[in-house]
Design a protein that fits this description.
With 136 residues, the protein is mostly beta strands. The protein contains one helix and eleven strands; from the N terminus they run ββαβββββββββ. The chain has a seven-stranded antiparallel sheet with strand order 1-2-3-10-5-8-11, with no helix packed on it.
Amino acid sequence: MSDVRTIQTTVQGYTTVDGAGVKLVRVLGGETIKDFNPILMLDSFDSINPDEYTAGFPMHPHRGIETISYVYKGGMVHRDSLGNEAPVHSGEVQWMTAGSGIMHEELVPAAERLLGVQFGLICLRNIKWRILHIIQ
C-alpha cells in the first residue's frame, strides 16, 4: 500500500531585481519561507543581456544558510571577506555553507548567456555558526 500525498499549495515565480540590480525569477522566498521551511529561496536566472546581471551581489552577510548554485550556461564567482574565491562555470554545481562572521559576494561576469538556478536552505542549528565551507 502506498501513501497518497496531496498538493498543499502551489507557487508562481515572479520577476524581481536583487543584489545590485540582477534581474531574476524568484520562485520561493519572502512569503513562502514559513510554508517551505527549511527552504529559504529558489531563484532562476536566464539572460542574454549582461546589463541584467553583471552588477552582481555586493558584499552581504550569510549567516546560517547554505546555497546550492547550478550554472548551466555562463558563470559566477563567490568571494568572501577572508579572501576565499570559488568560481562556478557552465555545467557546474557549487554547495556553499555560510556560517557566522564573514561577508560574501557573488560576481557575475558577462557571458553569451547566463542560465541557472540558486537554491537556499536554512542550516540546521548544529551547523548554523560554522565558518564558510564550499563543495564543487
